[in-house]
Specification:
The structure is a homodimer of 199-residue chains. Chain A has 199 residues and is an alpha+beta fold. The first copy, chain A, has one domain: Electron Transport, Fmn-binding Protein, Chain A (Pnp Oxidase, Chain A, Roll). Chain A is built from five helices and 15 strands. A seven-stranded antiparallel β-sheet of chain A has the order 3-2-6-9-10-5-4. The radius of gyration of chain A is 17 Å and the shape is globular. The N and C termini of chain A lie far apart (35 Å). At the A-B interface, strand 1, helix 1, strand 4, strand 5 and helix 3 of A face strand 1, helix 1, strand 4, strand 5 and helix 3 of B.
């Protein structure tokens, strides 16, 4: 096997390698709002479940140099957010929203997304997304000298477009949520097989 | 849209719903060793990147009632582990290893896996896996009353089977790492498209 030591790599190459090793990654298209009421939307693919009860998720927000991303600043002041799930129809707008824009410019405008009010939290939902998870920040874990913070949030409310509800859960065969890998690659959840868990 | 409040759900149904919302999930097939030298292997799909430099990953380990899983106990005592990436050839053994076995019984034996020594850490690698990430625990984040701990680990060494190395990263089109969804569903990374990031 080929051995690769990360300390021998340029930061950009270490990033490319990591992104190819952790795949496929689910995408949290996170919407927040700042104190002035400007809605923000940004995709994160360092995203995972934490525990099912209460339903809790986490995502990692990288720092850009010394700057905190708008999403993290908004979470620190408002403490709530929505995770919008991304299917193929939403892919292009999500990709546009991943760019860097000034704090007073809304990705909803830039990417042609429609904000729709949440039931419980102040952050808007993205109308074009088939699944919305309204979340409250439980804790933001700063990691010493690591240039990232892990946001842990509890899901207070699930919204699922009727056509994707099946037996009380989301029909992923129909929704085909996008998975991310490195090198600008995305895959639909479509080349599927089943394995029963051991007894 | 259909609104689902988690507090109205049985824990099992909340779990099924969460697992259908966060998809596709990458799989960390984590190998550790206990103080007596018994190797352990268990798959985790609450798994994500944290930061590329230094390359750092995290996964969530649920408690089973009051019990800590073997993986967590081993990490607390030895502080190191290997993340083994799962392709289709490794799927069945990974599934067997996901069962519950006593601490002195090795999943390597149960699932027919071959332990192979790591370069840096004490935990063995799984020879049948195409990619191994040797990791050192950086921190284990206990989350108050949540029944889970988030393990944050730094990758000290990447090993990639020669046939899957391409331009210094992993060729995911060839490797087709498995993605997990709810309901015993797995997908190969194969129904792919590309989108360039915005400038």
């Amino acid at each position: 096997m080929k051995k690769i030591l990360p300390q021998g790599l340029e930061p950009r190459d270490a990033y490319r390698l990591l992104l190819s090793a952790i795949a496929p990654r689910p995408i949290a298209f996170v919407s927040t709002v700042n104190k002035k009421g400007v809605p923000n939307a940004a995709p994160f693919c360092f995203f995972m479940g934490v525990t099912p009860s209460p339903p809790t998720i986490a995502f990692s927000v990288l720092r850009r140099g010394d700057q905190k991303k708008d999403t993290l600043r908004n979470l620190e002041s408002t403490r709530d957010f929505v995770v919008n799930i991304v299917d193929e129809a939403l892919a292009q707008a999500m990709n546009i929203a991943s760019g860097s824009y000034p704090p007073d410019m809304s990705e909803f405008d830039v990417a042609g997304l429609t904000p729709t009010p949440s039931e419980i939290v102040t952050a808007p939902r993205i109308a074009e997304s088939p699944v919305h998870l309204e979340c409250k920040v439980r804790t933001i874990l700063e990691l010493g000298d690591l240039p990232a913070a892990i946001v842990v949030g509890e899901i207070l409310c699930f919204h699922v477009h009727e056509e994707f509800v099946k037996d009380g859960i989301i029909d992923v065969r129909k929704l085909k949520p996008l998975g991310r890998a490195g090198e600008n690659l995305y895959a639909r959840f479509s080349d599927i097989f089943e394995m029963d868990m051991p007894a």
